[in-house]
Amino acid sequence: MMRISSPVVLALAVGALMSACAATPIGYESGTTAAERDSLHRSVAAPVVEANAPFISHTLEAEIAVPPGVLLPWLVNVPLERVLPGTEELPGVERADVLSASWGTPGTRRRVVLRDGNTALEELLVVEEGRRFQYVVWNFTNDARRAVQYAVGEFRFTPTPSGTHLSWTYRFRGLGWPTTGFLESFVEEDYAGFMRAGMERIRTEAVKELPGHTL
Question: What's the pTM value of the predicted model, to 2 decimals?
Answer without folding.
Answer: 0.89
